[in-house]
What does this fold into?
Amino acid sequence: MRLLVVEDEPDLADVVARGMRRDGHAVDVAETVADAELKLRSAAYDLVILDWNLPDGSGLALCRALVDGSLPTLDGERPRVLMLTARDGIEDRVAGLDSGADDYVVKPFALAELSARVRALIRRDADTPPRLRVGSLTLDPARFEATRDGLALDLTSKEFALLHYFMINAGKVLSQEHLLEHVWDEMVDPMTNVVRVTVSNLRKKLGEPSPISTIPGRGYRLEDR
It folds into this structure.
């Protein structure tokens, strides 16, 4: 999944970003409302971790703009929003959730809890259980474990993230461009063949028969059988 962390404290933003990357997510960081708006218009994010108080405006206003559609996103889909803020009053929590935020976490926080809440929001968006099963494949995001026919798969972080995305979209045809937007961050060169290479490596590790089909001219599909 691709996440945007909107946080103006560089050290905290780095901690959150590193934690989310360890969980297999692709992560971009914005320090201001203006930077966040630019990124949201130019990339497809599945979830935004959003501070309330930012140097050039309010994260709450940014959340409202995402929810009401006044801030258009690249793919037209609204990402989930998790408010991460030091504002801990009941009225603040109510205002945050009423603005359309899907969850509200108060600083200071435990990174393990933040990771769990992110996983819960992603499951809610995809209507999937905590542990995924598609055919002979199983995947446990919390434990970073994947198996096929009960045998553990030795996957890199990116291969795990790619398999995770395939599994929550099992049966759907996913183009290379779509996978690039949702599984890789802004540092990837869109002109490279990174998607094709990673899919190829993942197929080799999954073994035969491959559960991932190539749909000529359209992309890839994890067979839901």
Q: What stands out?
A: The domain at 2-126 is CATH 3.40.50.2300 (Rossmann fold). The two ends are 23 Å apart (CA to CA). The longest strand covers residues 80-85.
